[in-house]
Each structure stands twice: as structure tokens, then as C-alpha cells.
Specification:
Elements lengths: L5 E8 L9 E6 L8 H9 L3 H7 L10 E5 L8 E6 L8 H17 L4 E4 L11 H16 L8 H4 L4 E8 L2 H29 L7 H14 L3 E6 L1 H7 L2 H6 L8 E7 L12 E5 L1 E5 L19 H15 L6 E10 L11 E3 L5 E3 L7 H14 L4 E6 L3 H7 L4 E5 L2 H14 L3 E3 L4 H5 L8 E2 L7 H10 L6 E6 L5 E2 L9 E2 L4 H13 L2
Parallel strand pairs: 1-6, 2-4, 2-5, 5-6, 9-11, 9-14, 10-11, 13-17, 14-18, 15-16
Antiparallel strand pairs: 3-4, 7-8, 8-11, 12-13, 15-18, 19-20
């Protein structure tokens, strides 16, 4: 396998028109009345080229659009990219993130080696510059990502690296931008790491291989330890949920426990947080087998667990003063003579019994063991993340993830992190009325509810394994992948959850 494209980013003080780069990227709003100071300066040195493109109607500043103007001897850059920012009155931090992603995405497609970003200038003092630097970096890594490990050079032909500079002529502004950029690079690289692992197919990334990747990450990252339970240890511990799901595959399940313990003593005054992620490395549905159409996408059923792995990496590299557990139950759900069956009754790690009515409702079967394990580690807060239900995608489409939980304060904290990270959530119910639907007549619980409200009943099932802990559930079905490329991203895994969870942890670390 070849290396994924290497994206590197830094901040630099330089005069905009003198910046030497293959491409200088600037932003314009669709409702702007005239050019701002930076674009007016460039327009003058380019002999009115920017105004001509706008007057011709070739560029209107709509979000997701670009126009390329070729440089002259009067500026340092070989090209100028005009990046559409949409309406100024609607601009948010996500506008900056998407514009940066758009620029990086186009640069990779054009095989450009280095670009300079000055899009933050269009927003003036609207946003804190440190925050702007962070979201610029997140956007660059998101847009510059490509998954092509198995594509040969002769067929692909893309460059091995993309160098990006975030530039400003004011040294004080550069310092502020750089402060945020440093954390944005950590988060951006972590999300790219997640996308690569999630995109790897089932014949490459199975439960033992995922455990090996977790061990490797922990070994390379200060402050993280990694413990892995194999199938024999899982049996000894009574983790019947994950063992049942993995029983049909020759690639036996693994239960991965990552622990981040910071050097800072400040963490002792903060709550211990657990993030639990579903990692079904391939989901055929088991005996309740899925339709064959698009089944290849089921390699992405490990996206929740991968998001946990990458978030732990980011938290450690950011040196957050928090104690965090990352718990990843990993299994492969396949049909065979040893698979678990509809009608089976499984005893989970909590001691609760579950009647299996559908082997394709396997995510909750592995998560219930993960949640119980987190509760027994005396974690104060537990957040789980999973591509759990098609019902959530029916409810919310491919634009937002579902958010359920038992604590209003935690719900609001995650909603705030969603707004800041650009990974959107929508609060949905999961109360006792939904839990009633998950009761079995021959066991404590059953693993599917009725026809309606499947995302809510699934969350209500998970709630039974959280004891008295503050808990939230993120159902990321629908937002875990892009089926086709867009102006902001290549197709494949989205790495959803890495920015969201890291932002949540960053906010939790700031609280006294």
C-alpha cells in the first residue's frame, strides 16, 4: 500500500501580493458590494482581472464555487483562486472551514504542490483569529484528503504532498492564527487518520488488525496505554454480546481499551470521560443477511470505533488535562455454521440477558458490553458513537447525526461542540416509552423494537447498560461517508465524530 497524500501546514508573515506560491487563495462573498481591501489590491496588480471575471458572471461568490486567475509579474503567486463564501450575513466558522476544504480539494485535483490561504481576511474581525486558524487547518486536511492506498502511481498520478501556508502581513495576526492552526493540524491529521482506517476493506482491517493499529498508535503517542482482550479473555469476562456477534467469523473479536492519562495534575479535578465506539469491521448482517446492493459500504460499519481511536490520538497530542477512556468493541458480523442466530438468548457483560430477534441489530450487542465496561471503570460521563440504525438516516438524512442521552447538560455540551466543529447533531428522544418496546417476554431485553422509531428504541436499549452515569449516544448512520465526491471532499469515509468529540473534550478541559 502506498502512503496517503501528506498535507503539511504552517502560518507565515508575508505581504499578500508578494507571497510566492503556486496558488494564492482568497475569499469573496456573493453579496459583497465591491472588493475588499485585499482583493482590490490584487485586482489592481492583476490589471482588473478579478473584476472582469465577476462582471462576466463566471464567478458569483456562491459557496462551493471557485475561479482561477493566472498571475502576472506584478504578484508573487502563479495563480489566484477566488473561493466563494456565500452570503456574508450567513457566514459562520463552517464557512471558513468549507472554503479551506474547497481550496485544498481543488489544489490536489490540479496537482498543485503549494498554496497560500488568505481567506480569513474577508471576514475582518468577525471571528477570533485563533479559532479561524484552527478551522482553516481542519478544512485543509478535510479537503486535501484522498483515499488511494491501493491505486498505483501510473493510474493515479497525484503528488505525494501538499504544502499549505496560512498567511497575513500583520505579525500579531500571524501569531494568533498560528495558535489555532497548531491545534487544527492535530485535529485535521487525526480525522485523516480515521478516514484511512475506516476506508480500509474488510480483508485488510479485521478486529485483530484494528487492535494492532490501536496498539501501534498508543505506542507512538505519549500518555496513552492500550489493553486488548482476545476471545478467550472475553469469554472469561462474560462479554457475551461481542462474542455472539463475532462468533460467525474466523477473524475473532477484540475488545480494545485505550486510556489517556495526562501528565497535568489538573485532570484530577475534572470528570473522567469514556467514549465508546462500535467497530464492526465488516457487517454482512449475519444470518439476517443484508441485501447485496451496496454491501461493500459495510466496511464502514467500524466508523464509530475508528472515531474513538482518532479522538484519543488527538486528545493526547493536544495534551488535554482530562482522564479519558477510549473503548472499542470490534467484531466481524458474518454468517456461518457458528454464527449467533435469531432466537438465541445472550448473557451480556452486565449480566442482563438479550433475546436476539435480528442478527443485523449487532451494533447494540457489542456496545452494551462496551458501555457496561465503561460504567465499571467509574467513568463519570459515557458517550457512545456508532453507525447504529438505518432509521436514523430515514429521520435525518445524510446531513446530521442523531443525539440521544439521559442528561440535559451533557446534551447541550455536545450540541455546542457540534456547532463549533461543523459536525451537526439533532436531539432525539430515547425515554422510558421507547425502552418498553425493547422488553422481551423470555429475556430481560430483545435486540429490536417495533417498526417505528428504530433510532430511538435502539438508544433506549443502550441506556439500560449505562447504570447511573451521565450518558449520550451519537447515531452517525448516514453521515459516516460520502457516496460521491463533492467540492469539499473526496468520496469514502467522512471521519465524522473526530472533530466533534475532540471539540467536546477541549471544551471540557477548559472548564474549572
Amino acid at each position: 500500500m502506498k502512503e496517503i497524500i501528506n498535507v503539511e501546514m504552517k502560518a507565515r508573515k508575508v505581504e499578500f501580493s508578494r507571497c510566492k506560491a503556486d496558488m494564492l487563495c482568497v475569499g469573496l462573498f456573493s453579496d459583497a458590494k465591491g472588493l475588499d481591501k485585499l482583493n482590490a489590491e490584487l485586482n489592481g496588480k492583476l490589471e482588473g482581472a478579478i473584476e472582469r471575471v465577476i462582471k462576466l458572471g463566471d464567478f458569483k461568490g456562491k459557496e462551493g464555487t471557485i475561479a482561477i486567475i493566472y498571475g502576472s509579474g506584478n504578484i508573487g503567486a502563479r495563480r489566484v483562486m477566488l473561493v466563494g463564501l456565500g452570503e456574508k450575513k450567513k457566514a459562520t466558522l463552517e464557512t471558513i472551514r468549507k472554503a479551506s476544504a474547497n481550496a485544498a480539494n481543488k489544489a490536489v485535483a490540479m496537482k498543485i504542490r503549494n498554496i497560500a490561504l488568505a481567506m480569513h481576511r474577508a471576514f475582518g474581525a468577525r471571528f477570533d483569529l485563533s479559532t479561524a486558524g484552527r478551522v482553516c487547518a481542519e478544512g485543509v486536511y478535510f479537503g486535501g484528503y484522498r483515499y488511494d492506498e491501493f491505486v498505483t502511481e501510473s493510474e493515479n498520478g497525484r503528488l505525494d504532498s501538499l504544502e499549505v501556508e496560512l498567511i497575513d502581513s500583520d505579525p500579531a495576526k500571524v501569531r494568533k492564527l498560528n495558535k489555532g492552526l497548531l491545534s487544527g493540524v492535530v485535529i485535521g491529521k487525526a480525522q485523516s487518520y480515521a478516514r484511512t482506517l475506516a476506508n480500509r476493506p474488510g480483508n485488510v482491517m479485521n478486529p485483530p488488525e484494528l487492535a494492532a493499529a490501536a496498539k501501534k498508535m498508543a505506542k507512538e503517542t505519549a500518555g496513552i496505554s492500550c489493553t486488548v482482550f482476545d476471545e478467550k479473555q472475553l469469554a472469561a469476562k462474560g462479554m457475551g454480546g461481542i462474542l455472539a456477534v463475532g462468533s460467525g467469523s474466523q477473524n475473532k473479536p477484540r475488545f480494545i481499551v485505550l486510556k489517556y492519562s495526562p501528565a497535568s495534575k489538573a485532570a484530577s479535578a475534572k470528570p473522567t470521560i469514556a467514549i465508546v465506539g462500535k467497530a464492526i469491521t465488516f457487517d454482512s448482517g449475519g444470518i439476517s443477511i443484508k441485501p447485496s446492493a451496496k454491501m461493500e459500504q459495510m466496511k464502514l460499519d467500524k466508523s464509530g470505533g475508528i472515531a474513538v481511536l482518532a479522538t484519543m490520538k488527538a486528545a493526547a497530542e493536544l495534551k488535554l488535562p482530562l482522564n479519558v477512556y477510549g473503548i472499542i468493541p470490534a467484531a466481524e458480523n458474518l454468517p456461518s455454521g457458528t454464527s449467533y442466530r435469531p432466537g438465541d438468548i445472550i448473557t451480556t457483560f452486565s449480566g442482563k440477558t438479550v433475546e436476539v430477534q435480528n442478527t443485523d441489530a449487532e451494533g447494540r450487542m457489542v456496545l452494551c458490553d462496551g458501555l457496561s465496561y465503561a460504567a465499571r471503570q467509574n467513568c463519570d460521563i459515557i458517550i457512545d458513537i456508532a453507525t447504529l440504525t438505518g432509521a436514523c438516516m430515514v429521520a435525518l438524512g445524510k446531513h446530521k447525526a442523531g443525539l440521544m442521552g439521559n442528561d440535559e447538560k451533557l446534551i447541550k455540551q455536545l450540541q455546542r461542540a457540534a456547532n463549533e466543529s461543523g459536525e451537526k447533531l439533532w436531539h432525539m428522544p430515547s425515554g422510558d416509552e421507547y425502552a418498553e418496546e425493547m422488553k422481551s417476554k423470555i429475556a430481560d431485553l430483545k435486540n429490536i423494537g417495533g417498526k417505528w422509531g428504530g433510532a430511538c428504541t435502539a438508544a433506549a436499549f443502550l441506556r439500560q447498560f449505562t447504570e447511573d452515569k451521565k450518558w449520550a449516544h451519537l447515531d452517525i448512520a448516514g453521515v459516516d461517508m460520502f457516496e460521491k465526491p463533492s467540492e469539499f471532499s473526496a468520496e469514502g469515509s467522512s471521519g465524522f465524530g473526530v472533530r466533534l468529540l475532540t471539540t467536546y473534550l477541549m471544551n471540557a478541559a477548559k472548564k474549572k
